[in-house]
Amino acid sequence: MTELKYPKKVVLGDITVRDGFQHEEKCIPTDAKLWLCEQLILAGFKRIEVSNYGNPKGMPQFKDADALFKMLRTSKIVKDKLKDTELTAITIREKAVDRAIQARSDGYGPDRVLFMVSTSESHHKKNSGISLKEYWDMCEKYIPKIHDAKMKVCGTVSTIWGCPIEGPTEMKKAVEFTQRWLDIGADDIEHADHDGSAPPNKVYEYFSMILNAIPDPTKHIAHFHVTRGWGLANILAALQSGITHYESSLGGTGGQPANFVDGSPVAGTGEYYYSDPTITGLVSTEDMVVMMDEMGIDTGIDVDKLLKIGHMMEKIVGRRLRSECVHTGRIPKSITGRK
Q1: What's the pLDDT tens digit per position in 159-189?
Q2: In angstroms, what CA-CA distances link 312 with 21, 40, 65, 251, 327?
Q3: Domain boundaries of the chain, sorted by first residue
Q4: What does the DSSP assignment read for 3-40?
Q5: What fold is seen in the domain 11-328?
Q6: pTM of the prediction?
């Protein structure tokens, strides 16, 4: 019998507190964000996205970025684990990078920052406000400064499998962008399906191309959305191609930054791509971890603790989320309660 081939050990990052919450139309209390960061670290996650240093007028969900980093850095609950945990902040533009560098200089800032390009020019300009050429020039200027501040740089490549504005894209362009990120000093690359446009066969094809061109698996992070319901299928396809690093959000939350928060319109990144704002979101952390655990993959995560965190996450946002395993639990390994 031929067995399915995939890595037996993976590295997982949870990005709920940043990406998961950026699409929420109410501000999540800072104490709740801190609790989630702490509990996820205690559950075994060593990569956490904490906040976004972008303009809080446009994204008020992250107006507490500095406060949250300070609280997490001084948390007694995870103080012994922080030295082995990588905390990330999103820094799309110059002022955000400057804030992160200052926060790092002041002793509480992130360990890693994230830049973002899209292979689609129109999608990139909507997210960043400037052209691809201008953005690459900015990144080349800032990456040495970030490294001087003792922080890592993650370069995201988006619209790999399609663009919600322009439609079809070429995967080979994303391979070229990946190499360009590494050439200018990025430490790792997030390969993102922000639109949920990736079918599993194209995921396998793309990551096979990536690992042929840049075979170091520690450089590549898979990031899938479930806009069309293909998230876990894409995780499996990426596993089969040899990818070992993944990120996700509790309850499958997340998506395009909200343009309406706490009862008021805000800039966000403009008009939503989809008329129904509830259909966006990432792969559910809970479902992905349970699936991997059932496959015999070492995730390093306390599965039972994670499911408890998932239950509390639903209370924090005030609704049923898109995790099945939070409600169905793990697959029973024995029959109990019977004689």
Answers
A1: 999 998 899 999 999 999 999 999 999 999 9
A2: 14, 12, 22, 10, 12
A3: 11-328
A4: PPP--SB-EEEE-IIIIITTT-SSPPPHHHHHHHHHHH
A5: TIM Barrel (3.20.20)
A6: 0.95
